[in-house]
Amino acid sequence: MSKANRCNPGIIVALVLAGTLSAPVLGADQNNTIPHLRKQGTATQLVVDGRPFLVLGGELHNSSSSSLEYMKPIWPKLADANLNTVLAVVSWELLEPEEGKFDFSLVDGLIRNARSHHLRLILLWFGSWKNGVSTYVPVWVKTDLNRFPRARDVNDKALDILSTSNAARDADARAFAALMRHIRKVDGQQHTVIMMQVENEVGVLGDSRDRCQRCHAANEAFGKPVPKELMDYLQKHKDSLLPDVCDAWQAAGFKTSGTWEEVFGSNKPHDKNWRKRSFFTDEIFMAWQYARYVNRIAEAGKAEYPLPMFVNAWLDQEGYPQPGEFPSGGPLAHVMDIWRAGAPQIDILSPDIYAPNFKERCEWYSRSGNPLFIPETRGDGRGAVNVFYAIGQHGAIGFSPFAIERIAEPNSEIARCYGVLSQIAPLILENQGKGMIAGVVLDANEPPQKLQLAGYTLEFKLARHWSFGAPEYAAAIVISLGPDEFLAAGRGLTISFSPNTPGPAIVGLATVEEGTFVDGRWVHGRRLNGDETLSGKGLRFFGGGYSIQRVKLYRYQ
Ligand code: DGJ
């Protein structure tokens, strides 16, 4: 089959994303530049006050940030748990309780209180949709069904979901623009707010698409030709499209025009296997409708204050395989190309990862040059340590467990992970995207893992202790510091080294130091040897305690 007649087999293609890397008007990385995204090697970094920034974050429960009083005891708790960023909701219903009348007091209070605890903010715009439904829209929107029609299911039942109408889109965009204008006014110099999430987990729940008869963007548009902008995008990017959408397009004959079902095929019957998707054309159609709508909102916001903006996805998973069981049309990995085509103002497509296959989801969301940012995930013991994998292996911009106020106790796993990562963040950021970092997470039931780094193969095994047994899980991040020298941080595992370059075959440990970074300077603690280095065979991170170790290697035979 010639190249023009097949889809890209899913290899990672590093593209510079439209809209992603647009530096703000102020130019180079002076301290007064607006937070923005910048490419470093293969990584995309978030630049805040002229320096790359690693988001060690946490997302609050949905209602916490609606009361400044309620938040009072939470701020110090989060700062003590080593977070540097809080993800907090700003809702349309509280921002614009009456049409055209805005109340910024909550936003001002959040910014003021975050600042006084030396925390940054990522604000989550709960506008037209939150978890698919539209419960956060103001009452004047909720009750005006004529102006703001609801999505309808196959039985013409009204859903608690705004249809993607122009009226709702424009009203939402006006409110979001007002919010961004206000943030620029109160925070344009200090940059407490560093990114924005536009809407929350959009998509139709309860059916695979919106079937509202009187809504242009619903039934009517489904029967019409696929818009030219999308067809042009698909043809222009044909060689770098991901599977799924491309497979559907290919199976229908790579047509260059036609209705949605002509171009992507008819919807297929239900398949119980969540990895074999059906109702796929409906989902592609909804992804386009949501992407266009959200793009308009982001565009209106960026025109006022161009902070980086992302959307988040409620993922498909075992037991909920069909569009409509998860929000149909959300920015899921298999419709990333549609979102890229429809929403160039959105810089990052983010997964909310509660599913067990964390690593696979990170891989899917790192394709096509999409920067990895995880706004929601599990933050309990095993969930927290995934941060080492996301940052170490995928150059993630940041990590943020959900319900952070519940889990971020001073000695919690997430506090300890962030404690170590905040010390080495400057080193991570300096080396991101240059092939100098590896990250690992390992469960008790998993075999040892091997990774290549800086001329060596590193083998990671769970650290079994002769009298204390093995931990349930382990994690580490390793950074190459130069020839034959590594810094590793983590818990619960051993790391041994073998050479990948010509020369003597055996690797010895010249020196191993444990230490901490104080104000960016390495302060060594114990010199490690004996049991602590497997008698010279490798690094050892005992049980549940975290440490940072620096090793120099030599070779002999
Ligand atoms: C995902 C949503 O995005 C959050 O706002 C919250 O509702 C969590 N689910 C609850 O687990």
Topology diagram in text:
Elements: E1 36-40, E2 43-48, E3 51-53, E4 55-59, H1 68-71, H2 74-80, E5 85-91, H3 92-95, H4 105-116, E6 120-130, H5 139-142, E7 150-152, E8 158-162, H6 166-187, E9 193-200, H7 216-222, H8 228-236, H9 245-251, H10 260-264, H11 280-304, E10 309-314, H12 336-342, E11 348-353, H13 358-364, E12 373-374, E13 376-377, H14 381-384, H15 386-394, E14 398-399, H16 404-407, H17 413-431, E15 437-443, E16 449-453, E17 456-462, E18 473-482, E19 485-491, E20 493-499, E21 506-518, E22 521-527, E23 539-540, E24 547-556
Parallel strand pairs: 4-5, 4-14, 5-6, 6-9, 9-10, 10-11, 11-13, 12-14
Antiparallel strand pairs: 1-2, 2-3, 7-8, 15-18, 16-17, 17-20, 18-19, 19-24, 20-23, 21-22, 21-24
Helix pairs in contact: 6-11, 8-12, 11-12, 13-15
The structure holds (2R,3S,4R,5S)-2-(hydroxymethyl)piperidine-3,4,5-triol (DGJ).
(2R,3S,4R,5S)-2-(hydroxymethyl)piperidine-3,4,5-triol binds at residues 62, 131, 200-201, 352, 376, 402.
